[in-house]
Amino acid sequence: MGAKESLTGDGPAPEMHHYYSKFMRECPSGQLSLHEFKKLLDLQGLDPQGDMYIKRVFDIFDLNQDGFIDFLEFIAAINLVIRGKIDQKLKWYFKLYDADGNGCIDKKELLNIFTAIQAINGYTSTTPEEFTDMVFQKVDVNNDGQLTLEEFITGVEKDEGLMELITKTFDLSNVLKVIQSGRRHSI
Question: What positions does the domain EF-hand occupy (predicted)?
Answer without folding.
Answer: 49-84, 85-120, 127-162
